[in-house]
Design brief:
The structure is a single chain. The chain is mainly alpha-helical. It has one domain. It has helices at 2-23, 32-49, 58-79, 82-86, 91-103, 105-112, 115-119, 124-136, 140-149, 152-165, 169-177, 179-200, 212-235, 242-245, 256-268, 270-300. Helix 1 runs parallel beside helix 3 (58-79). The radius of gyration is 21 Å and the shape is globular.
Length: 301
């Protein structure tokens, strides 16, 4: 599954790059979420420089590094590349951003398992003090909140709820008028997606309590929510979002309704690829013991 997700990341990032070239050269930007992503990349790199690992684990470490930096690259493609500039004029470009932040960058970060390395960036005294506070109950409420939000059901509801709520026309329109609100939207997309994918993909030391059958249902449920939203957008008889409906200089010369239908297609098809891969992976793993049993029975006969 690791290699499949990475392959999808490379493919969809290439598609986004081609889309950018199709609408024009654009310019790169450095907004707060982008600066935060770069900061985490720098901290991760610094932690690696300070960590010595056994020779037998170096290949595994290199693979995890690749996942992490690929995830950061996808975030930058979504938020800092010319794609972000054109998202103000093209709804499908905006939807491409959402797909990258919901179903592509987060699973790559979760596959990378960067949690311990990012924790080690803190000074030793700060880690010891925070650890003692957690152990003694000084941060009991914070610990309970983290445990609650990290559970499967709250993570699922947060992921689907945030995705649905921010596509309500009045809120979506507001993000195009306010940079701060737009940054909040993208931050919540990415944060809740990390919560969701942490339940789907094992990412030690974080614990994913779901077994394979529940993970399949988990993924199918999220996919159905995404499909319903895509269908509603695609079948709307008129443009849903005022800024795009009133756009006078839309790149490519397409109509607002066509732009909206393309955006729905982006959510429906590319947005489902990683979820479908995860589903196939767990279906295959769930069926593996049954196949092994049948082979053993055939061998005995």
């Amino acid at each position: 599954m690791d290699h499949l997700v990475l392959a999808v990341a490379l493919a969809l990032t290439h598609v986004a790059a081609v889309a950018e070239r199709a609408v024009g050269p654009g310019s790169w930007s450095l907004d707060p979420p982008v600066a935060l992503a770069l900061l985490f990349a720098l901290l991760y790199w610094w932690s690696n420089r300070r960590t010595t690992a056994p020779l037998r684990t170096r290949a595994e470490r290199r693979r995890r590094h690749l996942y992490f930096y690929a995830g950061i690259a996808v975030v930058l493609m979504a938020l800092a590349s010319p794609l972000d500039a054109y998202s103000e004029q093209l709804f499908w470009a905006h939807m491409t951003q959402h797909v990258l932040l919901l179903v592509l960058a987060p699973p790559l970060i979760v596959l990378a398992r960067p949690w311990v390395r990012l924790w080690r960036v803190l000074p030793l005294r700060a880690r010891q003090s925070l650890g003692r506070s957690l152990a003694r109950g000084h941060l009991t409420r914070l610990r309970r909140l983290g445990a609650f939000l990290g559970a499967p059901l709250p993570s699922f509801l947060a992921f689907c709820g945030v995705m649905l709520v921010w596509h309500i026309p009045v809120l979506f329109d507001a993000t195009l008028e306010s940079e701060a609100l737009h940054a909040l939207e993208h931050t919540l997309f990415f944060a809740t997606a990390l919560m969701f994918w942490k339940q789907v993909i094992d990412s030690p030391p974080l614990h994913a309590p779901l077994d394979d059958l529940w993970r399949m249902g988990y993924v199918v449920g999220a996919m159905l929510v995404m499909w319903v939203l895509a269908v509603v957008i695609a079948l709307a008889p008129h443009p849903l979002y005022a800024p795009y409906a009133h756009e006078l200089a839309r790149p490519g010369g397409i109509s607002a309704l066509t732009d909206q239908q393309i955006a729905a297609g982006v959510m429906w098809v590319p947005g489902s690829i990683t979820l479908v891969l995860a589903l196939f992976f767990y279906v295959n793993r769930w069926l593996a013991p049954a196949r092994a049993g049948r082979h053993a029975l055939a061998g005995n006969h």
